[in-house]
Design goal:
The protein has two helices and two strands; from the N terminus they run αββα. It is mainly alpha-helical.
Length: 86
């Protein structure tokens, strides 16, 4: 019982630590990138970090075309609301 509880707590702590690092260290780095920077984002999928609305010089490289990505992720109810970002 304690082994299972320990594993669960360890997993949750790891997720919290990961989110904290992203919020405190990674996000400010990405926010510091000027909007006119030329960007190649690889594998943004249904949730790209940089969009044309905020960074007009962004280009995305993914495993499928825009049409194929929208068809693939549009069928997934967990992420269908994000396909406008593709």
């Amino acid at each position: 019982m304690f082994d299972n509880l320990s594993r669960t707590l360890s997993r949750r702590l790891g997720r919290w630590r990961h989110a904290s690092v992203k919020r405190r260290h990674v996000a400010p780095l990405f926010d510091a990138i000027p909007s006119d920077t030329l960007i190649l984002e690889i594998g943004g999928g249904y949730n790209p970090r940089f969009t044309k609305a905020t960074h007009p010089n962004v280009h995305h490289l993914d495993h499928a075309t825009t049409v194929d990505l929208r068809a693939k992720y549009g069928a997934d109810p967990h992420v269908a609301h994000l396909i406008g970002n593709i």
